[in-house]
Amino acid sequence: MRDQCAALKFTPELIDAAAQSKAWPFEEARKIIKRYEKTGYPESILFETGYGPSGLPHIGTFGEVARTTMVRHAFHILTENQVETKLLCFSDDMDGLRKVPDNVPNREKMERYLGQPLSRVPDPFGDVYPSFGAANNARLCTFLDRFGFDYEFVSSTDYYNSGRFDEALLKILACYDQVMDIILPTLGEERRATYSLFYLSLLFLEKYYKYQ
Predict the structure, then answer these.
(1) For residue 199, which of 100, 52, 95 has the smallest C-alpha distance?
(2) N or C: which end of the chain has fewer CB within 10 A?
């Protein structure tokens, strides 16, 4: 993105127009700038989108990445392209398979994997990819590349298995009640009654031991 913005001519007119713009990408970008006005910017500002690979990429997937890219672009203009940024497309492929999609083959074979992480569910389309999650992750990247998005793909499974989240998870465990006190008031009554930061799927355990 920074390289793409380098082609722009940061004229006084452009900078003034950006500063005066009420368009929502610029409004959101200003919030980011304000957040760092006292501390200064880190080495890179991280933008992130999420993708659930339980289904194929769709127009909503495109919209999320496009909107985030628009804010990122506005940020580069407001900072005159002086701050490095990165856009992560984060795949939640550790999420459990809650139901078998209607638009995949071999649906009956997928039933036994309900509750298991998407990165452990076999690819119903064939043996090209190691899992259903990996197959949809590949489709996501192909989809985004087709539209020329500048992003870095990240897999939840890779991050968890590498231990990258370990330190943060231990910190959350150490102050579990305090974190819950912040999150619970933001949830509806029904969701609040069952919400947990850490969720172990009983359905997964049942299926796991059944097929051992």
Answers:
(1) 95
(2) C
**Total residues found in the chain within this entry:** 212
3-class SS of residue 21: coil
Helix (H) or strand (E) holding 142: helix 132-146
Q: What is the pLDDT of residues 15-52, one digit of tens each?
A: 888 889 999 999 999 999 999 999 999 999 999 999 99
Q: Is 144 helix (H, G, I), strand (E, B) or coil?
A: helix
133 exposed, middle or buried (CB, 10 Å; 0-12, 13-18, 19+)? buried
Contact 102, 168 (CB under 8 A): no
Same domain, 87 and 49: yes
- Residue 50's DSSP bridge partners are 90
Angle, vertex CA 97, rays to CA 121 and CA 154, nearest 5: 75
Q: Percent helix, strand and coil across the chain, each rounded to 5? A: 55, 10, 40
Give residue 31's Cα distance to chain centre.
20
In this structure, the answer to whether residues 170 and 158 fall within a common structural domain is no
Q: What is the value of pTM for the model shown?
A: 0.82
Q: Which CATH number covers residue 94?
A: 3.40.50.620
Report how many domains make up the chain. Answer: 2
